[in-house]
Input
Amino acid sequence: ELKVEQNPLFLSMQEGKNYTIYCNYSTTSDRLYWYRQDPGKSLESLFVLLSNGAVKQEGRLMASLDTKARLSTLHITAAVHDLSATYFCAVLPYSGGGADGLTFGKGTHLIIQP
Amino acid sequence: DAGVIQSPRHEVTEMGQEVTLRCKPISGHDYLFWYRQTMMRGLELLIYFNNNVPIDDSGMPEDRFSAKMPNASFSTLKIQPSEPRDSAVYFCASTRFTGASTDTQYFGPGTRLTVL
Output
C-alpha cells in the first residue's frame, strides 16, 4: 500500500524566512505533485515532478524530487503572507503508463505572519 | 475553459436521504476522479473512470455509494441512504493523460455535504 508522509503538518513562520516542507513516499512512483489549498477552496496544482533530480521553481516556491530516496521537498524562499495555505504532496503510483488516482499526504498547514 | 464544474456546491440533508453529486469534467479530458476530504482521513480517492468506464472503485466506502459516468461530460456520485459520517467535501477532478511532464489533475470547487 502506497503511503505518503508530509512533515511538518503545521508550520508558523515569519515573513522573509526560508523553510522546507518534506514529503516521503513508500513505493515506486510515476510522478509526484504539489498542490495548494486555501481555506474552503479547491486544490490548485503547483508542480508536477517526474524524474530523479527534477527541480521546478515558480516564484518563491521550488520543488525537487529524489526518486532513490523517495523524497520530495517544497522550499519556500523569503516567505510572504500570500503563501499562507495548506500544501499537499500527492503521488501517482507506478502503473506502467496511464493516469491513476493520487495518494495524498495529510497536508502542511502553513501560516506566514508579518 | 470553465474548468471542472460541480453541483451543488453545498448540500445539507437528513440521515437516510438520497444524495446525488454531479460533475462535469474539462472538455477533452479522458480521466475523471472522485475524491473525498475530511479532517480525520484527509483526501481519499473514491473511484475513477477512464473513457467513461470505471477503473478502480476500491475506495468507495460501502454499497451505499455508487458512481456513474454515462457520457464524457457528466458523472454522478450517489449516496443512498446517507449517514452523518458521510459529511465531507467531495471533489471531482479530471485529466487528459498524454505522458507529458505537465499532465496534472484539475480539481473542481467541491461539494460540501452535511448529513444531519
About this structure: Chain B has a mean pLDDT of 95.
